[in-house]
Design the sequence.
């Protein structure tokens, strides 16, 4: 299940980045040579930048790719490291839930004001609501990581916090 | 003001407890901001910062340049670059180490990441240097130091992030990075020359290559050269914006890698996903930094600092030297991009108030954080080398980078006291 999710998000991210590259290339060539840029290319790119962050978020959370200061890592060993891993993952889970809530509120406001994308002529709010799904996924990953740390046999804790 | 100090102490405490830098800055930034404006508005700022402030067209420059670097790294061009540099320089004392530096510089011109440069060149440059009896310290040191050129020579991810944070023109920053980057290559090769003059056994000369072979070796690097000229030349003459150039550069690197038959469907997917993940990591750091900036700005710390510098009558250049000293100390605990994201919101308004040029200051910042990549205790490039060459001791690599650190200190001084080194090329742009 986790592997499938990881692969699916990875494929989506790969397609997104490739489309962003192609779109920018076609847009530049169209603008500079044929004087005809891709219609709404600007807005589509903006959406893709947002989705690169939010599609990538669960992946970097699962792989623990957030940048930490490694200098003091060795100070946390054994049982202390295990407890630290549990506490920090719960904390990150809660923070990511707050992030989700704030995105949801923001999307609600956009919906309320009926904000639309100027060239695509569609509402902005649904795009943000979908992003909430990805942050929720990231929060779930943190809670799973905390659970895994909690279940780890005492003295075997070697992983990253 | 006291609140800001509390904020910084809290931030470093969180970082010490292994909280990721992005989360640390977001937590302190949000609560610090809440102290001044109330909890509800501070929380609401998360929603807008994490969407409206990062979903910008210009920010696509980041994933696209990351992608360009990853395609270039996979294209195998590093081998040809090294071969060419080697043919031209290998016969000198320490020539292979010099060739490594020049190849790193060339590779940096199409790859914006120091770590990628160091990791890629380690595979290519270390075996021949060992074959010719080079000391491990000089061989590994030249790769680790040469890799740092990637952070400054455009396209540079660090300059892109600095440009985004300070709203400085990325095209001007790229142009400003060229001469200091070339100066870096020159000073690093000079460092190799000095070291091997003192102790010739560290880097014995190889057989000189015939001139025909030297010119033939350039054939393998023309594609990369064309790509650099199109990307940087296009930005410089105003034909492309940096974002457009990034799209052209990434596509060009993709085509070069395809033409060199180094891509499979699987490796292309890996490169795309890796570029996406790197972007997400950098952008979450940026979101954390923007939340932290809200707090720094509302606390008026930059204004207080600027006023204080004026009151105690420290000349603007003295302030820059103080900033450099702070960066060197912080470089002992923080990773380079994080250090920039944390400090630039405080420093750049101060520089603005003191009437200093933000493009020039950006180059100073990036060169100084470059040094942190090779200095103990957390010189990341040194660790990359150590991971790739487990038989070379960490202390040996750190000893090997010392002459290059000295060269870097000379370079920072030159850049600070001769601003034209950075500002001459941008002065011809619109």
Sequence:
């Amino acid at each position: 299940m986790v592997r499938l999710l990881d692969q699916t998000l990875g494929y989506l991210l790969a397609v997104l980045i490739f489309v962003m590259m192609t779109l920018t290339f076609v847009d530049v060539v169209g603008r500079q040579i044929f004087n005809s840029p891709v219609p709404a290319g600007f807005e589509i790119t903006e959406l893709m930048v947002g989705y690169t962050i939010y599609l990538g978020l669960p992946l970097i959370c699962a792989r623990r790719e957030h940048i930490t200061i490694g200098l003091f890592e060795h100070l946390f060993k054994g049982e202390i490291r295990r407890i630290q891993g549990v506490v920090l993952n719960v904390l990150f889970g809660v923070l990511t839930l707050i992030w989700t809530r704030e995105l949801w509120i923001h999307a609600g406001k956009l919906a309320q004001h009926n904000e639309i994308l100027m060239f695509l002529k569609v509402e902005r709010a649904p795009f943000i609501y979908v992003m909430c799904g990805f942050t929720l996924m990231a929060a779930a990953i943190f809670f799973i990581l905390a659970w895994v740390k909690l279940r780890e046999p005492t003295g075997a804790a070697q992983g990253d916090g | 003001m006291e609140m800001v100090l509390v904020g910084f102490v809290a931030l470093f405490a969180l970082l010490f407890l292994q909280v990721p830098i992005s989360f640390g800055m977001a937590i302190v930034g949000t609560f610090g901001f809440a102290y001044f404006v109330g909890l509800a508005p501070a929380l609401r700022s998360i929603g807008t910062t994490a969407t409206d402030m990062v979903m910008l067209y210009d920010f696509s420059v980041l994933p696209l340049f990351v992608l360009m670097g990853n395609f270039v790294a996979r294209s195998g061009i590093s081998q040809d670059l090294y071969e060419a540099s080697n043919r031209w320089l290998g016969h000198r004392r320490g020539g292979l180490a010099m060739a490594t530096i020049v190849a790193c510089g060339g590779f940096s011109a199409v790859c914006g990441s120091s770590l990628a440069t160091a990791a890629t060149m380690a595979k290519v440059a270390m075996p021949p240097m060992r074959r010719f009896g080079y000391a491990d310290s000089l061989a590994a040191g030249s790769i680790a130091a040469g890799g740092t050129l990637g952070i400054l020579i455009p396209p540079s991810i660090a300059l892109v992030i600095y440009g985004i944070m300070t709203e400085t023109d990325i095209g001007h920053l790229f142009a400003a990075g060229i001469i200091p980057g070339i100066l870096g290559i020159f000073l690093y090769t000079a460092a190799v020359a000095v070291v091997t003059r003192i102790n010739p056994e560290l880097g014995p000369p190889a057989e000189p290559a015939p001139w025909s072979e030297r010119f033939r070796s350039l054939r393998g690097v023309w594609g990369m050269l064309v790509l650099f000229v199109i990307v940087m030349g296009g930005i410089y003459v105003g034909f492309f914006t940096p974002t457009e150039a990034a799209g052209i550069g990434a596509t060009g690197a993709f085509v070069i890698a395809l033409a060199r038959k180094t891509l499979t469907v699987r490796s292309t997917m890996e490169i795309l996903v890796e570029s996406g993940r790197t972007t997400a990591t950098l952008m979450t750091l940026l979101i954390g930094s923007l939340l932290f900036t809200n707090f720094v700005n509302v606390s008026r710390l930059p204004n207080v600092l600027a006023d204080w510098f004026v009151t105690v009558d420290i000349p603007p250049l003295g302030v820059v030297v103080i900033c450099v000293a702070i960066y060197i100390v912080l470089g002992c605990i923080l990773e380079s991009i994080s250090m920039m994201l944390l400090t630039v919101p405080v420093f750049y308004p101060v520089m603005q108030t003191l009437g200093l040029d933000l493009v020039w200051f950006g180059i100073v910042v990036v060169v100084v954080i470059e040094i942190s990549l090779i200095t103990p205790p957390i010189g990341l490039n040194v660790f990359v080398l150590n991971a790739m060459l487990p038989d070379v001791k960490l202390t040996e690599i750190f000893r090997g980078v010392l002459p290059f650190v000295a060269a870097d200190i000379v370079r920072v001084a030159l850049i600070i006291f001769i601003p034209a080194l950075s500002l001459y090329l941008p002065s011809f742009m619109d």
